[in-house]
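Agenda item 2: AR6 complex prediction
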Amino acid sequence: MEKIELIRGDITRMEVGAVVNAANSSLLGGGGVDGAIHRAGGPEILEACKQIRAASGKCPTGQAVITTAGKMPAQRVIHTVGPIWGQQSETESDRLLANCYRNSLALAVQHKLTSVAFPNISTGVYGFPKERAAKVAIRAVTEFLSADNSIKQLYFVCFDEENFNLYESLLLKTNN
Ligand code: AR6
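Presented output:
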């Protein structure tokens, strides 16, 4: 799938329509990529998240919401909440993680954003096995992109080497 590109690095530097954040259901920030995004984008992002909280409450697992990207080069941030590994069955975890990718892409389409950068949702603090998560992510976005023409470029931005290597070999397989 030539619309998918693999990158090793920091997602906060991506010049894209939307950077996806691996948030928690409070939407009020945290560590990992969430902390990095709030630091890089500045307080405007938290302000926008607080407004969403006030209007709509917590964000359920698998769902996504959109805010400003503050000072980051991206246009918007899409905050999605990945499943915590061990809190539900393995198949339910897969389904919820796939929902994160699908719902984030659907929100990007709704907002006419044509490029999206994803971190490796749930594979940090939330403990989702990395290879399993990569397979779910690749399948979910590939299915979405084959049915959609508006997203032109999708980036998997891997921060750690293990995820980068996994995606590299799995994406090679899906291309051959
Ligand atoms: N750019 C890209 N990826 C990153 C960056 C970065 N700057 N920093 C970390 N990662 P995690 P989760 C990768 O723990 O497992 C937060 O506290 C990291 O290597 O950020 O979904 C939230 O508030 C890992 O592969 O998210 C939630 O409470 C991936 O991002 C909770 O953590 C995801 O790791 C969510 O846990």
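Discussion summary: The pocket of AR6 is lined by residues 10-12, 22-24, 30-34, 36, 82, 119-126, 157, 159-160, 163 (CB under 6 Å).
Owner for follow-up: CH.
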